[in-house]
Amino acid sequence: MQFHLDQRSGLPMYLQIVQQVKEALRLGLLDIGDQLPTVREVVAELAINPNTVAKAYRELEREGLVDARQGRGTFVSSTLIASSLEHHESLRRALLAWLAEAQRAGLDAESIHALVSRTLREALDRRAA
Amino acid sequence: MAWLTWRQHRPQLLATAGLLLLLAVAAVVTELPIRAAYHRHALSSCLPPATRSGCELIVGHFRSEYAARVGMTRYLAVLPALAGLFIGAPLLAREFESGTFRLAWTQSLSRRRWVLSRTLLLALATVVAAALVSALTMWWRRPFDDVGGRIGPHAFDVEGLVVPAYAFFAFAVGVLAGMLLRRTIPAMSLAVGIFVAVRVGVETLLRPHYLAPLHRTADSVAQSARGRDWILENRLVDSVGRQIPTAREDLAIVHAQRARVDPQDYLLSLGWRRAIVFQPNDRFWTFQAIETGVFVLLGALAVMATVALVRRTSA
Amino acid sequence: MSALLDTSALGKRYRRTWALRDCTLTIPEPSIVGIAGPNGAGKSTLLGLAVGLLEPTEGAVTVCGRDPRRDPAALADIGYVAQGAPLYRGFTVGEMLDFARISNPRWDQPLATELLARSSSATQVSALSPGERAHLALALALGKRPALLLLDEPFARLDPLASRELLRLLMEGAAEIGSAVVVATRVLTDIERVCERVVLLGHGHVGLDGTVEELLASHRLLTGARRPLGRIRGVEEIVRERSSGRQLTLLVRTNGPVADPTWSVEQIGLEELLLAYMAPEELPSPQPPEPSRLRWHG
Hints:
The complex is a heterotrimer of chains A (about 130), B (about 325) and C (about 300).
Chain A: H1 13-26, H2 39-46, H3 50-62, E1 66-69, E2 73-76, H4 81-104, H5 109-128
Antiparallel strand pairs in A: 1-2
Helix pairs in contact in A: 1-3
Chain B: H1 2-8, H2 10-40, H3 55-65, H4 67-72, H5 79-98, H6 101-104, H7 111-148, H8 153-156, H9 162-181, H10 184-206, E1 214-218, E2 230-237, H11 246-258, H12 263-269, E3 273-279, H13 284-312
Antiparallel strand pairs in B: 1-3, 2-3
Chain C: E1 5-14, E2 17-27, E3 32-36, H1 43-50, E4 58-63, E5 78-81, H2 93-103, H3 109-115, H4 130-142, E6 148-152, H5 160-177, E7 180-185, E8 197-202, E9 205-211, H6 212-217, E10 219-225, E11 235-244, E12 247-254, E13 264-266, H7 270-278
Parallel strand pairs in C: 3-7, 3-8, 5-6, 6-7
Antiparallel strand pairs in C: 1-2, 1-4, 8-9, 10-12, 10-13, 11-12
Helix pairs in contact in C: 4-5
């Protein structure tokens, strides 16, 4: 798989990698037993710090999604397809309800967007720290 | 390391080889008629201690015929200086000018090894080239040295062991100058300046005294008497050994000419003689060994100073 | 195990001016460290001391526990690319690699050739573009498999594309050999995306030293109405103060959340943060030009 990074997203790079792996797991692009690109491959592709990739892979390992096998690489050990898809619909409904509430409170699309992204960033920051 | 040294100095080394080849061809071409004349006139039978009649005339004729060509060999004395100019001076100066010393000094080799191996390899090449030039010159000058000797500077400076020694010294001084000045052109100037000063200084101040010179009193008062020795002093003295001032000599000659007497006979009749101080021709190899020692020592000191400076430099 | 790079009270004086003074730094493990600072801040001097080209005037520097000037064995652990990436101009790329192979017992020829896969080994060094030169110089340093890689202004004179290519090669090499990388640069944007730690030098002194995360987390930009300044809760130190009209902008170092509703609190980028430390004095507010005089300066 290939990663792409957005330096302006405000999201730490290692988290962007973590999220993209999870996204691929959710969409079924990665399956159990598949190998993630090696640290060196990612680094050669994206020109980023090898420690950043290593940190992302450690995070994925900590969450039980991948397995690092000494000297052979990092392999997918679990998948997110089932767990996430079944929740998508209910979460989407909750979000729609919240959006309706926000509009009633007088927020326009721009303010809603700003509020969501700020809250998301803070939440992730807190989790990262 | 040998490859690296060769690769970095390829142009100079190739130019040196080309120069050698050119010299060899020129030497052979110009020498052949000289050798032919030498044998035609049977000059070998005129060499001391032989006393063939009419030799003075034959030798004189032979020498004057080729005087211009023999004179040319004096210019070979500049060749060792070229080693300092074009091989020695740029060796370190160019590394400083291009900043590549920062590359070279940050590899895994010690600076000492780096500078020593390059210096010694190039010194070796320089010495070999100079030795070849020297051997070639000796072969070429052989007929003239046989009749005229080779202890005098005209031959001594371009023959024997001293030529490689001069070249080594010039090279080492060039390297040191490059280290001190860090720029090629100024280093070349400094190297040549030091080389010429030391060479001239040694030749005029030291060489005449390597061994105590000999003294001889010539029966003749003629000044042009030329043997195979290196004449250091040739003075006109009276019967008790006091020097005759030039003014007095001139006066005596004028006096003789007025009286229509041969001036030589007149001066002899006054009891005047020529007192000659000289170094005999057979001291050639002894002097060569001593002078070689002097220049090898000076060159070695320059190399040691360079190594110490390279190791200590903070730049 | 000793630190990859360790300096203590390191100082270097040229005649009367100190190029670097009282510099104490430790790089304990492989990481990517940016040395930032304006021209003449002492970046090159620090690197030159670390690789043994320069003799310290005071203090000490060791690489993997060894003094690079006294112990030539230390040189094998250091990869160094000097400013301007000096190379032998008359050599071909292949001959430069031969040079490095001869000069380094631990030389890794396969790695170096792999990193240089894109340029032909028969090309003359003098015919290389600035980007290719920088590439070659970096490959020569990486081929030593050093524990510590020191790069002095590697991105100067490179266009953005060549800079990115060089950074990619640098990261690939660092991933392969696991070395610490120290990059001295005026323009931090070149390495911002990879840099884990920043050391800011100014006038020969260490002005700031910390991980990028720490630095970004502990600095905030406060904007509010102009007023006499008292203590602001959560602010430890005001780094820079700028005012224009009725507005006041503060760059502050924080020691907790700034929970004061009269200030708008924003994150600050690394580049701007370092610039603020480089030129902390208050500058006059730029006067907006009159509308009729506006010109397009493309």
